[in-house]
Structures are given as C-alpha cells and as structure tokens.
Amino acid sequence: MLKIIADFPHAGSEAFLRPDGRKVRIVQHLADGRCIVGEVPDSPKARDASDNFRVDFTALAATKDIACDPSTDPRPRRIQLKRTKGFGLPDNTRNVARPTAWGNPWRPSDYIDAGYQAGQHEARRTCVEIYRAWLTGTSHWALTGWTIAPPDLSALRGLNLACWCKLCSRHALGKPRGVDCPDCEPCHADVLLELANE
Ligand SMILES: [Zn+2]
Ligand SMILES: [Zn+2]
Fold first, then answer.
1. ∠86-186-167 over CA atoms, to 5°?
2. Which residues surround ligand 1, an ion (CB under 5 A)?
C-alpha cells in the first residue's frame, strides 16, 4: 500500500497525525513506508529533535480535518458488527466473527464458566492471546493437544475486518490497524489485521 512520495507532503512540510490531528513536521521519508516526523516546535507539547518518531505514511494527512475524519483513513480498520436495523458492512470489509473460518475458537465465556476469576476483560485478552499464539505458531498452554491448522490470512489483506466485540466511542467508526486502545474490547480481529497486512 505504498504511495509514491509525490502523492504526499514532502520532507520539511507539515502534516497532521491520525486520529487526533496533531500537527507534526515530516523530517524524512523511509523506504519501508514510514516517515520520521517531529513535533512542531510552537506546540505546547514541543519536544526537541531527538524526540522525532516514526509513523506509518498512512497515519499522516495533509489537513487537520482529513486527519480527524476516520472515513478517509486508508489503513485497514476493525469494525464492530451490529444487529441494529440498517447496519451494513462498510466497503472493503470482511466479517471475521464466528462461524467464519477466521472466528476465534476460544471464547471468553468458556473461561468465565470454568471459574476464571480475572474478569471479562482479562478473559477476552486471554482468548486473543491464545488466538495469536495459534496463528503465529507460538507455544501456549491452551494449545496443548490442539492440532487444527490456522486459517489462511491471504484473503484478508488490505480489508477492514469486522467482529461483534465492542469498540469505544472514539473508535466507533473503526479502529485502525496498529492502534492499541484500552477502551475497546480485546478482539482477535486486531491480530488478524496485524498479521494479514505484514
Ligand atoms: Zn478504542
Ligand atoms: Zn471480536
């Protein structure tokens, strides 16, 4: 999903960071599709040059309005499925909830029912962690004796992925790949977004 550099503000120009529209200056384009950016010095949160950081090309927008408008975000997003009348999957979106091939076989309710004490959120996190271990071939206590092959992710590349897990109000229109949010429910779709687009 690399854009050509001519598409984009060049080194030295200002840009706005998704999703909050924070103003930054582009220091350098990198060959891997990222940019080195720095805080704009007149902002109250100005950092010195040593605090430059790297962001995905696609996290930058030319204006603050565009940066704050999730519908213009080119990064694949996690979408929340809803049963409300009139809800339709956005374009370029694939349902990855159960019972699709990508659904998470580990259910938080199984852990809660089995007496898992850490609560709903932790149970969800655990299920997502097991799912990640399954897909990446990492050993995990829950995978002992598990012999089912993980699903093929190639069909998910570049798509938004939808599941029932709740998104917070800030991410109501979708949580972009790579955004870590403590207020959104943990979901295996985050793992799929990450791995399918590596
Ligand atoms: Zn969120
Ligand atoms: Zn989910």
1. 30
2. 168, 171, 181, 183-184
